[in-house]
Design a protein that fits this description.
- The complex is a heterodimer of chains A (343) and B (565).
- Chain A is mainly alpha-helical and 343 residues long.
- Chain A is built from 17 helices and 2 strands.
- Helix content of chain A is 63%, strand content 1%.
- Chain A starts with 16 loop residues before the first helix and ends in a 9-residue tail after the last helix.
- Among the domains of chain B are: 160 residues, 3-Layer(aba) Sandwich (Rossmann fold); 38 residues.
- Chain B is built from 17 helices and 17 strands.
- In chain B, the strands form 4 sheets. In chain B, strands 1-14-13-17-15-16 form a 6-stranded mixed sheet, with helices on both faces.
- In chain B, helix 4 packs parallel to helix 6 and helix 5 packs across helix 8.
- Chain B is globular, with a radius of gyration of 30 Å.
- The two termini of chain B are 38 Å apart.
- Classes of the chains: A mainly alpha (343), B alpha/beta (565).
- The complex binds iron/sulfur cluster (2 copies).
Chain lengths: 343, 565
Amino acid sequence: MSLYTPSSPHFHANNSVTQIMLKVVYALIPGILLYVLFFGFGIVMNLLIAVVTALTCEALILKLRKRPIIPFLTDGSALVTAVLLALSVPSIAPWWIIFIGTAFAIIIAKHLYGGLGYNPFNPAMVAYAMLLISFPLQMTTWPLPLSNSNDYLGLVDSFVISFFDTASAGFAIDAISGATPLDYLKSQLGLEQSVSQIMQSSANFGLLGGSGFEWVNIAFLAGGIWLMKKKIISWHIPVATISSLIILAFIFYIYNSEQYASPFFHLFTGATILCAFFIATDPVSAATTPRGKIFYGVGIGILIFVIRNWGGYPDAVAFAVLIMNMCAPTIDYYTKPKPYGHR
Amino acid sequence: MIKNLFKFPGGVHVSQFKDLSIHEKVEPAKLPSKLVLPLHQHIGAAAEPCVEIGELVLKGQKIASANGYVSAPIHAPTSGTIEDIGDYPIAHPSGMSAPCIVIKPDGDDKWIELESHASDYSSIDPSHLRNIIRRAGIVGLGGAGFPTYIKHNPGPDGSVDTLIINGSECEPYITCDDSLMRDRPDEIVCGIRIIKHALNAKHVVVAIEDNKPEAFQAIKKALADFDDESIEAVQIPTIYPAGSEKQLIYTVTGKEVPQNSLPINISIVCQNIGTTAAVYRAINHGEPLISRYVTVTGDIHQPKNLEVLFGTPINELVDQCGGVKGSVRRLIIGGPMMGFAMHQLNLPVIKTTNCVLIDAKESKAFKTRDFAMPCIRCGSCAEACPAGLIPQQLYWYSKSQEFDKAQDYNLYDCIECGCCDYVCPSKIPLVQYYRFAKAEIWKRELEMQKSNTARQRHEFHQFRVEREKAEKAEKHRQKKAALQAKENANKDDIKTGKEADPKKAAILAAMERAKAKKAEPKNTDNLTEAQKKLIAEIDAKRAKQRNAASQAKPTNEDSKDSNNS
Ligand code: SF4
Ligand code: SF4
């Protein structure tokens, strides 16, 4: 009789990749609920389509690659990619936008690079960038918050919008959609209006940022802080990303508040919060050393500000993250901690 | 006095499970029908048997002597007959057998005549103290089993700054040091004072994790009996691996032992609690090391600490503690974080066996490793690593066998504590990969050495062949010359020219040629850049380690000690 003789340690923390990924999804739920409250059920359609597509693609590819299907399908990573992409795409986009994006994220951005743990770029952001470049119209038509449109988009409406078109659901596209606050601000600034004029001219802007979205973002922030408390993510990347963005925005705001939006605006509009807590923190593609994470986060914050103000796209999260993904290995190499006995 | 403690980076909070075994009273293990004493129970060379099969031995009698400087003698744990000297299974992860002495106890448990040394240890010369400790076969009881007397050498300064007594016992489940501190605080404190004297230590810190308040109080009380301000007991935070030597030194002093160096080089010596008690018994009672406290715990009915004679089979300890709850899946010697899983239960307890931990198939505390997910680069491992390494990179390079890169990321600073492995959400057997990489590097290095020796042999052979050839040619030439000389003499016009010794010149030339060959050794011609780099790095590493080792070399005084014994 020979006993079981694995290598030490014989004890393991009660954690798993699945648990980590699921917690990330849980942390997004409050924000999603507010999203539904303010903008209707379009986001639910997005989520459903994305999740089904992601899991199907994942299973197919795993089978093709002859990998064990169950452990990888249940690891939750495809789920997180799907949810993040669904949240980044306008909730009134047609189904095929989400379908193509998700399939691209899983098949190309994830598995072509070797699958879980091997993808150098955040799959959801690769897919988002691809969609934005390929389908700019559908990707920039965002729903208006409830207060602005008389009609709330229920589940059935959302289904019809997603699979047919807005007219079939009995809505005029202009009544329910518009440009995002970031987009609007950018185009109006181009028309030589001042920030305060623009803010007043459109009911699209709320207290802190885009009306409606500001509350969704606050809920995401709460979820992010919960993730930090649960030690699923460390403070480095969110804090570095947000503080560098705020500081830059603040400096420019002080310098010329007619030309540059306030730090609050930058924080609570667009995908800043989602990025800082949920996207940039994707472990696989981020920097991993503690100091490296700070450089990485600061880089993202700066890039977001630069692209928003001077770049060609209204929001910059995807590009900022992708650019910093490229730098991550180098950052890691130069920020190796000093081991014990080397000081 | 210790004002503040320092927090080493990383570490993990692990469920303790110490309650299982600490509440029962310590009892002596039953005398087994056979004691199997491996000759190799310590770091260094195996001891050499000095008894014959069939010989009667008394308790405490030396049955195997130390073999060289880094070695320790072995004594009979009880009186009886030497039944066999031969290979038996030992507690080694490979499941191998090794030379052992088997004693069949006679049940009388009759001691040899003991020679107590110490009405007053402080009158004994430190080198003599070391000698007694050496002869008592005392080795570090914390797990590594390094011969204690070697550590009791204050080095060239004649004194050490800080002596740290390690009572932290940071591994889950293990409570043998805790029990010892509760049971025998006075012996421990006496032992500490003896070691302090031997080392001429300025400060002594007894470090106890704060999950052992009773032990801490007991030691504190025992210390209060002596009015010695230079010895103090401190409570350190409970976090694994607080008791690992390097981490403990950092916690207590804030100093780091430089890479490839030893604590003594920064004037610090660490000793385990159990060792201090053993030192006391050796000095005050003349008793050699023949038994120790062993925690028997895990999935068994009555987990407890036993005082066990070396050589007692583990399965008998388990039986004495009520047997296994369910069926055994694994036997771990040591704790769950760094302990080794053994192939079978019928293995003898040795000097370094601090804990016998049973994992039953029905257990929930332990899991089996079935499937590892890929590394998701979450960085949890780096956060947990007390050595400040980046375990996921080490893993990456160990797995891809890029050992030079693994060394670049300081593979050799890894203490195999298992923290990274513990926290990894992907359940990757990280430590196993590091062990593999280390073993592989040593293997390659050995091969390199072998090929070096082979090359030297080959060169010498070449040289000899050439020399013989040269000599032959020379003889030939001389004969010819002689012939010619004769002819010339015949011609009567001999010119006496002064020539340098031709034979010597030929040999010199041959040597020159061999040297030239040596300058570009043939079997390293076709190395790739990576291999060359690897060789250079390994050489550098070796040189560093040699340096460290030479700094730790004995002084003359100690070599004298070893001659005496
Ligand atoms: S803890 Fe495991 S999964 Fe996370 S980075 Fe380390 S090795 Fe990779
Ligand atoms: S086993 Fe090695 S790499 Fe892992 S935490 Fe311990 S020292 Fe660090």
